[in-house]
């Protein structure tokens, strides 16, 4: 390891990576998340959607080494997107923020309950929900009450 991330951006620095988990506030479903991101991406210079956050992740090298952002929609992790890079964004107020640039593909995941929280959290790869297979990507999610009951008894 030992190399600066500046020298290896886009190249694998190791097999170590980490994910983020983030609430998608006000989003009802994956389709609405995708529509919002397409709308915002159309306004970006490079055509890629970026999610702005106040705090800059300290584990940047691990995030861009294969990490994804896992979206919590209505209390459940429902989808993920690969993190491409982190861009510095400076608002009209002069404050430096982090733009998390995301791959346009939104990948549905097995749902996993997640309590509300502020900001984002790191998510270890072994704790991340699995991607839904192509055939299951169009399946309806379990009702939240049933999902919670199954999680309570250790089935989910």
Please write the string of helix (H) and strand (E) elements.
HEHEHEEEEEH
Overall pLDDT confidence: 85
Characterize the largest beta sheet: strand count, sense, and whether it forms a barrel.
Answer: 7 strands, mixed
Radius of gyration, Cα only, in angstroms?
A: 16 Å
What is the number of helical segments per DSSP (H or I, 4+ residues)?
4
Q: List low-confidence stretches.
A: 1-13
Which class of secondary structure composition applies to the elements?
alpha+beta
The helix fraction, in percent, is: 10-25%
Hey, roughly how much beta strand do the residues contain?
Answer: 25-35%
Number of E strands: 7
Envelope shape: globular
* CA distance, first residue to last residue: 36 Å
Can you characterise this structure?
The protein is of the alpha+beta class and 156 residues long. Helices cover 19% and strands 31% of the residues. The protein is built from four helices and seven strands, in the order αβαβαβββββα. Strands 1, 2, 3, 4, 5, 6 and 7 form a seven-stranded mixed sheet that branches. A hairpin with a 2-residue loop joins β3 (68-73) and β4 (76-90). The model is unreliable at 1-13 (pLDDT under 50).
